[in-house]
Recover the amino acids of this structure.
């Protein structure tokens, strides 16, 4: 993998290392404010997914704050309504992530908005549905190569519940059971952002892309 630079030496995951990044996360007001506003929107203001107005505003908020490249929020919102996902959320159904991701756009083209789907589910139940993004992926691939903490294919990262199982393997291997999946995500994302910076200049308030 070309992204694995030979001179890269990422500090081994541990309670101390994860705690360091979580403390950093909690000090970044733009990230914490964004998270708390979305938590309020998804769990208090519009907790259900059976009304188009409610779902559309959640799709638009996620798309704007996370830059998830949803170019037709209305189509995605209608897709989510049709899936009747509330009963599946009650049962912590992980397959619903993949179903939300697969959207038939106008003209019949199929699009897969996987990162968006993980975020949509995570903001309803953050400790059940872990968020996928490219920074976390790079960290997991790095430590798979270095320590073989889990045996998975690259494509498994982009499918639930396989992705969740990989993160659970990561927690167990490195003794991070005291952290929930939301905290593991925040740690890996911030560390990934540090070790795998993107070439282009990022917007300050885009917490995950």
């Amino acid at each position: 993998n070309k992204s694995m630079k030979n001179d890269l030496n990422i500090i081994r995951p541990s309670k101390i290392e994860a705690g360091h990044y979580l403390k950093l996360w909690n000090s970044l007001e733009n990230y914490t404010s964004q998270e708390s506003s979305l938590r309020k929107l998804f769990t208090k203001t519009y907790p259900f997914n059976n009304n188009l107005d409610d779902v559309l505003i959640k799709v638009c908020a996620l798309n704007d704050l996370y830059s998830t490249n949803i170019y037709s929020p209305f189509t995605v919102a209608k897709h989510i309504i049709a899936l009747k996902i509330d009963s599946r959320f009650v049962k912590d159904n992980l397959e619903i992530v993949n179903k939300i991701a697969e959207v038939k756009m106008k003209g019949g083209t199929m699009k897969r908005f996987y990162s968006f789907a993980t975020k949509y589910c995570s903001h309803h139940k953050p400790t059940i549905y872990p968020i996928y993004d490219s920074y976390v992926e790079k960290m997991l691939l790095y430590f798979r190569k270095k320590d073989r903490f889990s045996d998975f294919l690259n494509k498994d990262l982009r499918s639930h519940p396989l992705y969740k199982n990989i993160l659970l393997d990561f927690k167990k291997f490195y003794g991070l059971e005291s952290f929930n999946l939301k905290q593991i995500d925040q740690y890996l994302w911030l560390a990934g952002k540090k070790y795998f910076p993107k070439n282009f200049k990022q917007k300050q308030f885009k917490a995950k892309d």
In short: The beta strands are 102-104, 110-112. The chain has ten helices and two strands.
